[in-house]
Amino acid sequence: MNGKRKLISFAVMVCAIFLGAVGFYGVKTRYEPKTDSGAQELPPTVYTTDAGYYTDPPTVPEPTETAPAATEPEPAAQSSAVGETAPAAQTTIEYETVNATLPRPEYFDIPLGMDISLDYSAAEPVFSSTMGDWRTHTGIDFAGVLGDPVKASAAGFVTAVYDDPMFGTVMEIDHGGGITAKYCGLDKGSAVAVGTEVKMDDTIACLGVVPCESESGAHLHFEMTEDGKNIDPLTVITMP
């Protein structure tokens, strides 16, 4: 009796082991996916994002090449070859040519006082007490006092101011119409600048000394030329 029970127990145990093995294999085969070739596939990876989750891997956009910003072509270097148009030069006053462009003034006034100490004498020599000889006198001497204001005889442009060993400080004014005046014997440093535009009776300097006529006292030696030739200033000055 005991031997029969042992045999039945052994048979039950063998059946239980067999059924357990068959069940485990079936479950494993059911839940393990396979490829067409029979190879086992790995379960999909779950990816999470702020918006949820998904099983496909996130798509990373491929970098796109950014076209470089368009640049403006550099201006071509200017050529200095013959035929190129040069920039216009700035307009400046050429004092040598002002005489031909300014109209001749209608009136000329006396530049200093009313006292003429020596007249114009280009044709006949006169004796110079300062130089001790005879020489022509190519201007008119207007007597005055050192420091007296010297006036412009007419409108024009100051074209030169310089020191002369014989006539002291000299100013030249282009009065237009071919007429240029020399104001000689001015006080050094008192003259207006070259390029100054003056009007009739404007003060242009103070009276100084004429070295070659110093014995004649303080006076303005006044000369005029027309088209480069000396003329008697009284032929154009309007005397009162």
What's the quick description here?
With 240 residues, this protein is α+β, with helices and mostly antiparallel strands. The chain is 15% helix and 30% strand.
Kindly name the structural category: alpha+beta
Q: What is the CATH domain class of the domain at 98-235?
A: Mainly Beta
The coarse overall form would be: rod-shaped
Number of helices: 2
Order of helices and strands: HEEHEEEEEEEEEEEE
What characteristics describe this protein?
single chain, 240 residues, alpha+beta, Glucose Permease (Domain IIA), eight-stranded antiparallel beta sheet, two-stranded antiparallel ribbon, 15% helix, 30% strand, rod-shaped
Descriptive account of the structure:
By secondary structure, this protein is of the alpha+beta class. It has two helices and 14 strands, in the order H-E-E-H-E-E-E-E-E-E-E-E-E-E-E-E. The chain has helices at 2-31, 95-101; strands at residues 47-49, 52-54, 116-118, 121-128, 133-137, 140-143, 149-151, 156-164, 168-176, 179-186, 197-198, 203-206, 219-226, 229-231. A hairpin with a 2-residue loop joins strand 1 and strand 2. It is rod-shaped, with a radius of gyration of 59 Å.
Question: Helices, strands, pairings?
Answer:
Blueprint: H1 2-31, E1 47-49, E2 52-54, H2 95-101, E3 116-118, E4 121-128, E5 133-137, E6 140-143, E7 149-151, E8 156-164, E9 168-176, E10 179-186, E11 197-198, E12 203-206, E13 219-226, E14 229-231
Antiparallel strand pairs: 1-2, 3-6, 4-5, 6-13, 7-12, 8-9, 8-11, 9-10, 10-13, 13-14
